[in-house]
Amino acid sequence: MRQMGSAMKNRSTIPVMLVLCLLNLFSLTIIRQEEVLITRQTLESLREFDTALLANTRGYLDPTPPSEWYMSGAINSLTPEIGPIAGIAVTAKMDSSTPGGEPEMDNYYDQLDRMRKMDLPLIWVIETVGSRPDHECVLGDGMAKMLHGAGCLGAVCESYCRDIAGCKAVPFAVYGLGTIAHHEVMRFPEVDVPVAVGGITINPGDIVHADSEGVIRIPEQIAEPLIDKAPDMCDFEQAVHAIWRRTDVDSTTCREELAKGLERYGFK
Question: Are 91 and 189 in contact (CB under 8 A)?
Fold first, then answer.
């Protein structure tokens, strides 16, 4: 009887273990199917469009509230001549304003080495955490050259930078609150962590797109659909705006043409 009970127990255990293995394999398959490979070509294609157009297009592709993916208007392009940039976010928390102490740069230099191995266009996104926010200075043209050499197209911060003429010459795009003359010793307490910049959270690996009108975050899952639909949004806007600017149409006509245009260009 004991042997029979043991055999029955083994027979009941095997199917359960098999089911668990199959479930694990199924889960791994789902994860693999959801992974999206972001290529240099994808990021370079995103640079062909302005941020506002991509933001308008995203609204029809992704239900995420806009409040979670566009930065505040306080963050401006300090190098508008460079044009749009798009890259993978590399993040850091930095203190360049607290008086006294010693520099803490190891995390920064280690991060630079990791950037060099990524082989993709990158954007450095920095949250400043010093005790005097109005005295933070995230970078100048020296750091811009180091970052550019590691594959960075530009930097985004809710703070100040300097040597903007030198940054333009690199070329290295800079987005922030404005300029400042100097800084205290620099410390990098954390890198490669989520950062709060411009009223939203940027995670390491997010796609960031920025130009002279602002900065947005793009999920990797909609990067390719966004590239596909952005030209349609451009055509839609041109067609509808041509009607809206006319002096011989009323508000009813404007609303009707808007609805027709959205349907015609696939945004309904």
Answer: no
The per-residue pLDDT for range 124-142, each reduced to its tens digit, is 999 999 999 999 999 999 9
User: What's the rounded Cα separation, in Å, for the pair 167 and 152?
Assistant: 12
From residue 30, give the alpha-carbon distance in Å to each of 23, 146, 205, 215.
10, 39, 20, 32
- DSSP characters for 28-65? HHHHHHH-----HHHHHHHTTS-HHHHHHHHTTT--S-
Burial class (CB in 10 A: 0-12, 13-18, 19+), 209: buried
Distance CA(219)–CA(46), nearest Å, equals: 12
Global pTM value: 0.85
What are the boundaries of each domain within the chain? 40-47+62-218
CATH topology of domain 40-47+62-218: Glucose Oxidase; domain 1 (3.50.30)
